[in-house]
Amino acid sequence: MNALHHSHDADLLSRLGAASRSIAETYLEAAHATLAELVARPGLLDGISLARKPGNYARNLVYGDEDISVWAMVWDVGARTSIHDHHCSCCFAVLKGTIEESCFSAIDTKRAVLKSTVTHGPGFVACMLPTGPNLHQMASLGPEEAISLHVYGFDHRRHANSVEREYQLAAV
Ligand SMILES: [Fe+2]
After folding, report:
1. Distance 164 CA to ligand 1 centre (A)
2. What is the pLDDT along the chain (172 residues), one digit of tens a residue?
3. N or C: which end of the chain has fewer CB within 10 A?
4. How far is the CA of 160 from the centre of ligand 1 (A)?
């Protein structure tokens, strides 16, 4: 790197970098608090007609503006996403049932290796930035359908979904 050689300039830019992180962290904290409040509300989705897809998951847009879109996902038993990362922030809460989440490390732009798998139950909330370790796959293993609420940092009128790139599981 052809670094700026005045230490004052490096300090200036370092402070700017820290400020960008604090904005992101402030958003993630707010998203986490909002989802925690929503997920604790009985009957949150009452009166909303939710689409379902046998053997798969169905996305239901329940709120959208120029900054965020909020989706209720209904997961049939056996439904599974691809292994993917995101072009935007990704926050979600489990409302009903259980969701298995596996996290991966990319080894190139097409392949990933498994790092960990955890199961999330009702009330679980997670918030991630696109630049964080946010390469995952979500699955519904039953025994009943699952419902989760997702807050993504994209305008639903500009993007079809939150996925930046999809990966194949690498043979190790
Ligand atoms: Fe995702």
Report:
1. 10
2. 677 778 888 888 888 888 888 888 899 999 999 999 999 999 999 999 999 999 999 999 999 999 999 999 999 999 999 999 988 889 999 999 999 999 999 999 899 999 999 999 999 999 988 876 679 999 999 899 999 999 998 888 888 888 888 999 997 7
3. N
4. 13
Q: How far is the CA of 141 from the centre of ligand 1 (A)?
A: 17
Å from CA of 69 to ligand 1 middle: 14
Q: How many CB atoms neighbour CB 172 within 10 A? A: 7
Give the predicted TM-score (pTM) of the model: 0.88
The two tokens of residue 161 are: 């979904």
Where is the binding site, in residues?
84, 86, 136
Please enumerate, by residue number, every residue annotated as part of a binding site for Fe cation. Answer: 84, 86, 136
From 27, 138, 153, 23, select the one nearest 88 (Cα to Cα).
153
Q: Which structural domains are found in the chain, ordered by start?
A: 7-169 (2.60.120.10)
Count of residues in the chain? 172
- Residue 46's φ and ψ, nearest 5 degrees, are -60, 140
Give 2 Cα–ligand 1 centroid separation in angstroms.
36
Give the three-state DSSP class for 59: strand
